[in-house]
Amino acid sequence: MSKVSHFYENRVRHHTCHIWKHPNYPKHLHKHMEFAYVAGGEMEIVVNHELHKMTSGDCAFIYPNQIHSYESKGDVELMLIIEDMDYLGEFYDELTNYELETPFFKREQLSAYGREILDLLFMSAQQKNVPYEMAKGMLLVLLADIFHSIPMYERKKKAELSTTEKLLLYVNDNIRSPLAAKTVAKELGISTYYLSHIFSKELKMSFPDYVSRHRLSLACDMLRDTKKSITTIAYEVGFTSLRTFLRCFKNQYGCTPKEWRNQYEKASIQPVFTKL
Fold first, then answer.
1. Fold identical between 6-154 and 163-265?
2. CATH number of 6-154
3. Do residues 49 and 89 lie in contact, with contact meaning Cβ atoms separated by under 8 Å?
4. Are 95 and 85 a contacting pair, CB within 8 Å?
5. What global pTM score does this model have?
6. How far apart are CA 153 and CA 102, in angstroms?
7. How far apart are CA 221 and CA 19, in angstroms?
8. pLDDT (tens place) for every residue of the chain, 276 residues total
9. How would DSSP label each residue in 114-179?
10. Where are the domains of the chain?
11. Pairing mode, strands 104-106 and 50-54
12. CA distance 44 to 57
């Protein structure tokens, strides 16, 4: 059976654009392009081991397979756009052969067109059922402005993935399946001790905690994007019991999955755009 990336599995569409009120996600990487824009509040983001404190008006651009993480303590208005690379052929060269001088930049660095599009995207992120054609069109305009306004340099040929990167990709690719440290270590040809050392030193958490947080984030995506039952979601994201899922979810988010879904649905307002 072919393996499917976590970020391919956990999103109903190949494009997502939504508001994240409490952005907290451990270090991870995936094969998608990711754009983050803080419209309000403060948070921290790490991209390729570079920590940046983001405040209102700050943006971050994450290329595919770049390790990144999010952390916030209070309420934040973070717009997050994640796009499948297969749907961005218009910018294949900029996304594969070049890289921004810095992954972090301010809204003011964009042109007047870029700022207008950013505002429209932020508005659309608060709506439901925005047609993909419109969403992608706005994203393409934003990308064109970013690549025109922010200095870029030619990428160097990257060496083989590091052990940490291989670990994160393995977790992403197998997040729905049983994941034990001993089994994962054996698959990657390393010791269980070394695996635990990587997670505790580089990711600041244990292997089981890391897997649990990924599964909880996947569950939130499914709570937001599907009408599946709580029980179905719990098992589909890889938890072996509903009780464990409910306990971990409450510990992480301070509410039940049902309450989380209700809060999201109440916060979402009706669409400005109509279906094509």
1. no
2. 2.60.120.280
3. no
4. yes
5. 0.78
6. 10
7. 12
8. 333 333 333 333 578 898 888 888 888 888 889 999 999 999 999 998 899 999 999 999 999 888 899 999 888 999 999 998 888 888 988 988 898 999 999 999 999 999 999 999 999 998 877 888 899 999 999 999 999 999 999 887 666 778 988 898 889 889 899 999 999 999 999 999 999 999 998 888 899 999 999 899 889 888 887 889 999 999 999 999 999 999 999 998 889 999 999 887 766 543 332 222
9. HHHHHHHHHHHHTSS---HHHHHHHHHHHHHHHHHHS-EEEPPPP-SPPHHHHHHHHHHHTTTS--
10. 6-154, 163-265
11. unpaired
12. 14
Pairing of strands 15-20, 58-62: unpaired
- Do the Cβ atoms of 239 and 217 come closer than 8 Å? no
- 163-265 homologous superfamily: Homeodomain-like (1.10.10.60)
Residue 164 CA to residue 149 CA, distance in Å, equals 33
Please state the separation of Cα 232 from the chain's center in Å: 22
For the chain, first and last CA: distance in Å?
Answer: 36
Tokens representing 82 are: 């994640």
d(CA 215, CA 175): 7
- E strand map for the chain: 15-20, 25-28, 32-40, 43-47, 50-54, 58-62, 68-71, 77-84, 98-100, 104-106, 152-154
In the sheet that 43-47 helps form, which strands lie side by side, from edge to edge?
25-28, 68-71, 43-47, 50-54
Which residue bears the tokens 């052969």?
Answer: 97
| CA–CA distance, 150 with 146 (Å, rounded to integer) | 6
Spell out a b/e string for 137-163, using b for 16 or more CB atoms within 10 Å of the CB, else e: ebbbbbbbbbbeebeeeeeeeeeeeee
